[in-house]
Amino acid sequence: MRASRYFMPTLKEAPAEAEVPSHIFLIRAGYIRQLAAGLYEYLPLGFRVLKKIENIIRKHMDDAGALEVLLPILTPSELWQETGRWDVYGKELFRVEDRKGRLFALGPTHEETITDLVRKNIRSYKDLPKNFYQIQTKFRDEARPRYGLIRGREFLMKDAYSFDISEEMAVKSYEVMKETYRKIFDELGLDYLMVEADTGAIGGKFSHEFVVKVPNGEAHIVYCEKCGYAANIEAAKYEFELDKLPPEEEKSLEKVYTPGVSSVEEVSEFLGVDRKKIVKTLVYILDDGTAVAVLIRGDRELNETKLINYFNAVDARMASSEDLEKLGIVEGFVGPIGLDIPVYADISVKDLHNFVVGANEKDYHLVNVNIPRDFKPVDFVDFSTAKEGDPCPVCRSPLKETTGLEVGHIFLLGTKYSEAMRAYFVDKDGREKPIIMGCYGIGVSRLMAAAVEQNHDENGIIWPENIAPFKLHILALNVKDNQIKDVAEKIYNRAKEEGIEVLYDDRDISPGAKFKDADLIGIPYRIVVGKKVKEGRVEFQERKTGNREEVEIDKINGLLKKLL
Prior knowledge:
Number of strands: 31
Distance between the termini: 17 Å
Strand content: 25-35%
Shape: globular
């Protein structure tokens, strides 16, 4: 492709709203343009990268035996109502109404649609297993679209769904997809982690995320360098046994005057007590209106995802001042003793002795509290958020913490959707059983951003070779010089003959502008045709390393074959 005929509107500056490198450079280098908040147009360069990513995904999905389909973007609301997600998915679900008043969803995901397809067409165990996938536009009504392609309202996604006759076979399908995802991300040239994850709104028995390690990532990950354990912070565990305080002899319960002192830090300083021996009593309101109290040690943070999962709730929120007043609870001095709502405790509290809690009375705390002498929680549960330095739950080595960008997520769904939508098969004994399902997603457009987040410098993008829009960039530094132009044309035509994807900058602009655009665009290899053609040489450059070498013009064919 000749740059003079191409469309790559590069910019010297990025829009003010562009904050992260991928957003900045994809706009500046002419890969994307914003149409509205969270909506982006893919220009020719960007579309080429998307197709490269898609084709790598397709290759490995096809190799794994998955079958490509294309499902409608619009899903009738009746299907979502069958699974109950029409009401519980939340405001992120785009809902539209046609001229006849029928409601539809713009699919953020397609579990209902694919399950409907399968239940109408598969009835026998002989027709299973199956794995269907598609690469399709998805929609999510994000409250705050941001970071360009990282969090948009419209995005490109690969979603796949497996269907099996037994739990054992479903796990095998899940493991095949797990390995397939590794191959995909390896070929994409990304530095990633596979981590244990929460199943979230999709549901299911267990799940894993594939997270690209980047400083600006929205996913918080803990991992172990020694054994390889890794988990999203929402699902991460830690070995509590190594974090316990030594046992003590029980002391007498006392009520202490603590005027205006309510936070953990204030109580710790006022009483001269370690934060680990102060227990926070947090009151939450579940989505059904139930109020519960949760105890957690003062040096730890509550993980709301774990709380929601334990109570099998859709959502939960911290009780407001008004909620506490209605419950007759004194804000700032809440404690577990004498509460009229159920009390649950984090495992960090289980073996604690002589600890401090609120006295349920303004300006007072109780010290030397002990379980079960003074109160007994309904249950002890892992409600804690794991953090850096916590002992690994597998090998007990200190955990590390990092941020990342989720680019893939796989779920073992079980029968959540097949039972709700009666997607049943008849087994060899003639009995009807629900199909066991799995779900596997990859953010295709997000991968484009993730690759840039991991591969850039201050001058622009440095594409991994397998997904670069072109492999070779030829710069003719002065197209008015016939010798330079003739050599550049010959190299360009030879590269095309060899089957190399090449972008030839034949524009009549300054050499400085060409170099700036080349750095921005980030094509892996570059041949610079300039004044040294008079000496029979051109310059070969690598964008990633910055290495440069002079190559004799009559040896260019060998260089091109090597590139190919």
